[in-house]
Amino acid sequence: MESCRREAVPIDDHGERVILLGNPNVGKSVIFNYLTGKYVTVSNYPGTTVEVATGAMSANGKRFQVVDTPGINSLIPTSEDEKVTRDILLHGPPAHLVQVIDTKNLRRGLLISLQLLEMGIPFQVVLNMWDEAKSRGIEINLRELSEHLGMPVLRAVATRRKGLEKIKDNLQPCSPSFPAITYPEAIEEGVSRIASSLPTAPMSRRSLALMILSGDESLSRWLHRNLPEEEISRIEKIRFEVQARFRDPIGYQVNQVRLRKVDEILSRVKTSRERTPRTFTASLGSLMIHPFWGIPILLFILFLTYEFVGVFGAQISVDFLEETLFGEWLLPPLTGVIHRFLPIPLLQDLLIGPYGILTMALTYALAIVLPIVGCFFIIFGLMEDSGYLPRLAVMSNQIFKRIGLNGKAVLPMVLGLGCDTMATMTTRILDTEKDRTIVTLLLALGVPCSAQLGVILGMFSGLPVFYLFTWILLIALILAAVGYLAARLLPGESSDFILELPPLRVPKISNIAVKTLARIEWYLKEAVPLFILGTLCLFVLHRTGGLALLEKASTPLIVHFLGLPAKATEAFIIGFLRRDYGAAGLFMLARDGLLDPRQVLVSLVTITLFIPCIAQFFMMIKERGLRKTLWISAVIFPVAFGVGGLLNFFLGILGR
């Protein structure tokens, strides 16, 4: 590795930063976990729903803040993830940059390296998965590559922690010495004219001018914050003048020049021919996306996921935590203490009443949702580290494509069968706001959580199979129809389904543990307050008589339109608190002989499509905003009762 001149790095008020960036699936998270250990915070990047992990690290007698950025394919953003990564470089103070590259896909990684060099940002390169590349016959001349880039280049096998210790030794950055890439004359002229008008930034004016010429609309807010309107209009005019001289988009022209430079570097540093190893994991990875064999593998893995999250997490674990830990060990002594030392009825009701913070909010958050979330985080981490996650998305892509989504939507939809509140949170993995909105709508509309689903199936068990199949068919058709219409009516573009398939690997338990604990910590900080807030709202409604008024106002709709007994109103009101509470209320009515088979079917279809529980409602507000949440609820309410009323009408005609 070539030596380079060192220079001091400015320190901001919060200490020096180490930023990890690279393509998706290159092992950044494994390196991040190695550098930071358990001291991890996961939060949204300001103004977005994109998660960014940060942690603390010690090196060379100093403390550093390590930032794990979202995976990117370019620093000219085409997705919110790429915009967040670019903005971290654009708005943040100078930092130590570590680019992680999959050695097997060096061409793709070097494309980002060239962009960083054009930005004038010093960095070091970590060629990860060196062992996998070597097994394929790929060998890279590290010294030659380091000389071409003018930056330190390390080799590593992150899953085995090999080579990672050298990252800390190379934190002091080299000054970029890479010669500028020459673009067509018209582009160079446009870059020169635009760059002269741009303000000083953490990256070079030349790279910003290239982004603007390439049509990077995500820079609009930064430009308006730093330049007068007349200057922005002049820059836009220059861009149109340059574009008029080319048949293809400028962004395409720029990318082609960069790719030619990458290929030139590769021709000098890549010294062997590739071969594809026929290992068991490679063969299994191919079977997982096979048009035929991939389907039974997919169904088997989804079955295991549901068994672990829906059965072990949502039933066995929840039963123990809710009934034994909270119901027998914690709440009874706490109730006794509160009755003895807090003799104020209002405060007692607030803490341990039917809508109490201890008896409802914390019990719901910690005894019911937490075990489901924890189990899902474990499964999600296993899918992530093994490389099955992108294969799952590929196999389900054709199904979701029919309703305007892509295969990534399968993950929050499957999680919805465990807990719709947490599934709403995981819509962040989708690429566009339009896709996230559609999946949030479908989750709120017709995906029953495991607790509600268990009650529903229990009610159908005593009826002819016709009623169960009718329920399944109606819910599936409604979800497909609403998703299809939403994809065509909602503004914005759906994301393209472009996904690289990493090799299949055996997950490392320590990595899964660190990721799971970090995500659970985030849940405790971010989601638990929502449950407390929702319970407080219900407490106020209960104390002021608001719940009783709601029951009285909705009785005509329940009795006359749905053909249900008046007492069913209580089930729908309590269903907003918790979905399974609503279904349980209907179960009690059916057990007492107050619902006939037709009413059972009508009530279960309606409550399945009914508005989400209050915890999911607040999570929707957090993820999608209040306005969008109200619109979603405004769609769901008439759909649920409209379908239920029509079903009641047609079943009456059929004599069912």
Set down the secondary structure blueprint.
Elements lengths: L15 E7 L5 H9 L3 E5 L6 E9 L2 E7 L11 H12 L4 E7 L3 H14 L3 E6 L1 H6 L6 H8 L3 E3 L9 H5 L15 H11 L9 H9 L6 H7 L2 H15 L6 H20 L10 H9 L5 H48 L3 H8 L4 H30 L1 H14 L8 H7 L3 H6 L7 H14 L3 H11 L4 H25 L19 H18 L1 H17 L1 H16 L6 H10 L1 H13 L5 H12 L5 H11 L1 H29 L2
Parallel strand pairs: 1-4, 1-5, 5-6, 6-7
Antiparallel strand pairs: 2-3, 3-4
Helix pairs in contact: 3-11, 5-11, 7-8, 7-10, 13-15, 15-22, 15-23, 19-21, 19-28, 19-29, 20-26, 20-27, 21-27, 23-28, 24-25, 25-26, 26-27, 27-29, 28-29
Question: Can you walk through the features of this model?
Answer:
The protein is of the alpha/beta class. Among the domains are: 149 residues, P-loop containing nucleotide triphosphate hydrolases (Rossmann fold), CATH 3.40.50; 85 residues, Orthogonal Bundle (Helix Hairpins); 187 residues, no CATH class. It is built from 29 helices and seven strands. A seven-stranded mixed sheet has the order 2-3-4-1-5-6-7, sandwiched between helices. A hairpin with a 6-residue loop joins β2 and β3. α3 packs across α11, α19 packs antiparallel against α28 and α28 crosses α29. The longest helix is centred in the middle third of the chain and has 48 residues. The protein starts with 15 loop residues before the first strand and ends with a helix.
Q: How much of the sequence is in beta strands?
A: 5-15%
Q: What structural class do you assign from the helix and strand content?
A: alpha/beta
Q: How many H/I helices?
A: 29
Q: What is the subunit organization of this protein?
A: single chain
Helix content percent band: 55-70%
For the termini, the CA-CA separation is 79 Å
Strand order of the largest sheet: 2-3-4-1-5-6-7
Would you count the extended β strands for me? 7
Shape field: elongated
Mean pLDDT score = 84
Which consecutive residue ranges, at least 5 long each, have pLDDT under 50?
A: 1-13
